Amino acid sequence: MKFKVLLHVNEPERWAVAISNIINFLNDVSEESAEVVVVANGSAVKGYVREGETPGEVQGTVCAVGVSAGSADMEELSKRGVLFLACRNALHTQRIAAESLPDFVTVVPAGITEIVRRQADGFAYIKP
Amino acid sequence: MKFKVLLHVNEPERWAVAISNIINFLNDVSEESAEVVVVANGSAVKGYVREGETPGEVQGTVCAVGVSAGSADMEELSKRGVLFLACRNALHTQRIAAESLPDFVTVVPAGITEIVRRQADGFAYIKP
Amino acid sequence: MKFKVLLHVNEPERWAVAISNIINFLNDVSEESAEVVVVANGSAVKGYVREGETPGEVQGTVCAVGVSAGSADMEELSKRGVLFLACRNALHTQRIAAESLPDFVTVVPAGITEIVRRQADGFAYIKP
User: Fold this and answer.
1) pTM for the whole thing?
2) What does the pLDDT read at residue A53?
């Protein structure tokens, strides 16, 4: 049986902790026995925007916050099977076009619903 | 089967996020298929105090923090079936009289116990 | 059946809230009917270091943060059956030697794994 875990990130400054948690977890239990899902909502979705890229409709400041430094780590983790989800409501509020997100990010209608469904399906919840 | 979810709010500044999460959730799954409970403890119980009202024993500053702006939204959500709970220990610590709370708020002996019981009863946990 | 609850502390400034939550909980349900586990990772492991003690390899500042004031409460709670765990990865990152921790603290290989396992085992999750 696999370890199933969902990490909920809703503030950009928590990405570093979340990424570190996932790396420690996969190193501990091995990626074959783990199913890891990250749900980003709120302003945390800014962490998915690639550095140097203009996120869709938005000009300017979003890319400058320095939270997307995690992107390389995220891409690496996605190759190890980690699923990265972005809340569509949050993207709208943050004025980030879904098209501007990296390929490894999947947009879901509502992050909260995803969190509720996954817990009902046996995923542990962690707020990094 | 209903989606059961508990939101835990323990800091006043997280109310806006919590309210927004609930609205997105109900709009996504419809209130008929959702059972939503909010447990407020710690200083977050200040968010239940109506603006302009003096909370029980306390004079002055509590109402000025601007967190109770959510009250109208809370009342609206309570009409859509959302249950708002306040921890009695927290009310005591914050010197807020239970009588000063809006009618839609229910006081429970200990917020933490409520959170533990609900999760044992199948509620998903979300920390906004 | 016992109430099973895990508290996740990953920032030193959340210890006071966590300790208060546990005291309220045990006073409400009694320690005989509760199984309480605290998992500390990230910089929160600094909260386990006794005041006035130099934590292993580190000289200086760690003890000065004033978060270890909770130690007496922690020791008291450990006597009431509360289990305090520290993440080994976090200890390494924070340069705290396991030997410098109080006797009531148990070191686990990865805090995240512990959180996932416990939830799969029926523990409620609380982020104070």
Assistant:
1) 0.89
2) 58
